[in-house]
Fold this protein.
Amino acid sequence: MEQEPKGIREQSAKYPMVQNLMHKVNERSLMAEHRKQSRKKATGVDGIDKAAYDEHARERIAALVERMRKFQYKPLPVRRTYIPKANGKLRPLGIPAYEDRLVQGVMAKVLNEVYEPRFLECSYGFRPGKGAHDVVRYINQTIMTKKVNYVLEADIKGFFDNVDHDWLMKFLAHDIQDKNYLRYVKRFLIAGIMEDGKRLDSDRGTPQGGLISPVLANVYLHYVLDLWMEKAIKPRLRGEVYYVRYADDFLILFQYENEARKVMDTLKKRLDKFLLEAAEYGRGIRILHQDLWETIVSFLISQNNNILRIRRSIEALCRRYGKKIEISAAEGESCYSFPVPEAIAEGGLDGLQGLGLGYRDKYILKMARRCSEKEGKAWLKQLERSSYEETRRLLTAEFGIGKKVADCVCLFALGHVEAFPVDTHIRQILETHYPEGFPFGRYEGYAGILQQYLFFAELKKEKKKGSKSAGA
C-alpha cells in the first residue's frame, strides 16, 4: 500500500489532472483499513462493528470490491446521534456503516495524496504534519514581526453542513479524471441521514462523521478561499497581507485598514457565490486593530527574552486595564482588548507593579501619559509616518528610553525582524551588519513602506557581500 499513494502524489505534482484512482480501492487497501479500525467505535445503521466484520472479513471485502466494480455498491445513510458540548448544547454526530467507513478511509487517503502537492502552505487543518500549534506559531510570528496593523477574522456558519455538492464536484473534476471515482464521491455526498427511524436527504454538506469529509472540506476551501486570496487578492493590494486557514476558520492580516475593509466587503460576496455565509455570533467577519501603541508596548515587555513570561505579562496587562469584550454570550466566551493609553495613565505606576513588566513599567507609564494627551494622540499617528531619526529621537527624549532599545523599537515597530522580536536578536542584526551604528541618515525623507524597502534592499546587499567574501 505504501508505494501506491507515492505514485499518485508524483502524478499529481507532475500533471494537471490525475487518472486511474478507483483501482486503488482494492482488497488489499480495504483489508489494511479494516485492520486499523478501532473495536470501540459505535455502529452505524447496519449494526456491524469490527468484531462482527472480522468473521469472514476476506470474503466480505472480496464481495464489496466486486459490488463496487459492478457499481452495485451504494453507501448507507449515516446514523445521526448527539453528544453534549461543554456549553451544555448538543453537537450532531454522524456514524457511517462499517463498510462505508472502510471505503471512505481508503478514498480519503487517495484524495490526500492527490491534493497534498496542490494545497497551499496557508492551509493547516486536517493535513498530515500540520496542526493547531503550527497555526498559532505562524500567527504569533507574523503579527509580532511583520507589518500587521489589522486582522480580519472570519468563521463560516455551519460550513460542513452547507458545502454545495455541485461546486464541490466541479472542483474535484478539475483535478481528477476518473469518472468512476467521482461517481462514488457523489454517492457518499447524497447517502442521506437516518434519525429517529426516518431517512433524511443530504442535498448539501459533506458526509457527517465520514473519514472523507475533512479532505473534501479542504478541497472546497482551497478553491473558494486559498487560491482566491493568493492569486486574485494579494497581487492587487499595496500593503503587506498574510492569510492563514485552519479548517473553516481563517485570519487575514493586513498592513492598511482601507485594504482590510475592502477585502472584508469582497469576502462576503465571495462566500455568497459559493452558498456560504459568515457566522452570526462574534460578528462573523470582524476587523481587529493592532496599532503602533500596542506594538511598542508589546516590544518593551518582550525585552526579558522569556516568551512564556512575555505572554503572561501582556495577558495580565490586558486583564487589568483592557476593556472586556464578549465574543459569544451564548457560549460564555470572552477576551480582553489591549488597554488604551488612558487606562494605564489613570492607573499610575502602582497599578503596573506586579504585572511582570519590571523596570519597563516606567517607560510604559510615560508613554501612556503622553499618548493620553490630545496632542499625544496626534503624535502617535505622526510617529507611524516619521523617519527613523525622528522616531528614535522622540523615544529617547520623551520617555528616557536608551538609544539601543530605541533602535530596536524602531526596527521592530516597522517590521524589520524576521525572528521573534527580542532585543538580543535585533542587536545582533545591528552589530553584525552595522558595526559603526545604524545609518539612519540614509533614510531621512523616506517614510513608511519605502523606508522598509530601502532597509531590506540594503540588508540583502550586505548579506551578498558577506557571502562573496566568505566564498573567496
About this structure: The chain is about 55% helix and 10% strand. The longest strand covers residues 78-84. Residues 448-471 form the longest helix (24 residues).
